[in-house]
Amino acid sequence: MRLYAVTFGIAALAAGVCGAQEDRSGWPASFTVGTASQGGTYFAYGSGWANLVADELGLSGGGEVTGGPMQNMALVHTGDAAFGMTTMGPAAESLAGTNPIAPGLAMDKACAMFPMYQTPFSVTALSSSGITSISEIPDGARIGFGPAGSTSDTYFPRMMETLGVNFERRNGGWSDLGGQLQDGLLDVIAFAAGVPVPAVSQLEVQTDVNIIEFTEAEQATIMEAFPVSEFEIAANTYTTLEAPARSVSMWNFAIANCDLPASFVKAVVDVVMSDNERMVGIHRAARSTVPSNWDKNKVMPWHPGAAEWFAENAGADIPADMIYGQ
């Protein structure tokens, strides 16, 4: 896949930004953050914190459009991207060597860096379709599942099949799929993205949509079959919602190449985690980007620099066997 860099900041005047005594031995002069497709939460969130870190640390850095969590694990593992973002499901599959991008390769050079937010799984259709529930999705419906290999594309088709939905699978970036839904080329979009999803917010401005929640029984079925937890999309997330919408979710974490200098990763974590209000200004999903959520990672080894920051600032008691190189 061709990557398009969105770069921010400059390397000039880098020295002294984080204190005159700071040891920057081995730090890269620039960095990239693997995100996902434009129109999705990963791109907005990831490009935002890349910009913030570049500005604060005086480096050249930015976000890259990618195929999402699975590809980000591969890019960070190989070092083609210093940082990336992933969800717990794709992370576990990548560590086990079942990432479809490189079957058989255990991607153990991608380390946990900081908690981001939960990814709710939600369904959107045009109001004119008359679809108001999962059970009303017609046989053979054309469903957009996001970019190939994304969290949504990896898990949502399986979820739909588990719930007895028969569909035609379509892939693409969220913005593109939103346009196809509006043009009648799709019947439903199955989103797995932090809320509010920019593509859904844009659709709300342009047309009437139904944001479809899971029933209690559907939610229980999905939670039993997949590595997800109970979630509720708040009513104020979208103008369309009049009440909270029942959903399921999967945690997202920022990841770093495990061989990056500990002092560099610690400094990046400090920029992101030390001012939540600033992060929420980048994207509302960052309300969950707080130090106390460090314990939501039960899959990936921690980068030593990140583990040190959370031990010092969040009282994290991370087992040694969960820290890379220890």
**Shape by Cα distribution:** globular
What is the percentage of strand-forming residues? 15-25%
CATH class of the largest domain: Alpha Beta
Tally the helices: 10
Mean pLDDT: 91
- Roughly how much helix do the residues carry, as a percent range? 25-40%
Number of domains: 2
Organism: Meridianimarinicoccus roseus
Pfam families: NMT1_3 (PF16868)
InterPro entries: TRAP_TAXI (IPR011852)
Signal peptide: 1-20
Describe this structure in words.
Residues 1-20 form the signal peptide. InterPro entries: TRAP_TAXI. Keywords: Signal. It comes from Meridianimarinicoccus roseus. This is C4-dicarboxylate ABC transporter substrate-binding protein. By secondary structure, this protein is of the alpha/beta class. The protein has two domains: 5-118 and 252-322, D-Maltodextrin-Binding Protein, domain 2 (3-Layer(aba) Sandwich); 119-250, D-Maltodextrin-Binding Protein, domain 2. It contains ten helices and eleven strands. It has helices at 41-57, 69-78, 88-95, 151-162, 174-182, 198-206, 216-225, 262-273, 276-282, 304-313, and strands spanning 5-8, 30-34, 60-64, 83-87, 110-126, 141-144, 167-170, 188-192, 209-212, 229-233, 245-257. Strands 1, 2, 3, 4, 5, 6, 7, 8, 9, 10 and 11 form an eleven-stranded mixed sheet that branches. The longest helix is centred in the first third of the chain and has 17 residues, at 41-57. Residues 1-20 have low confidence and may be disordered.
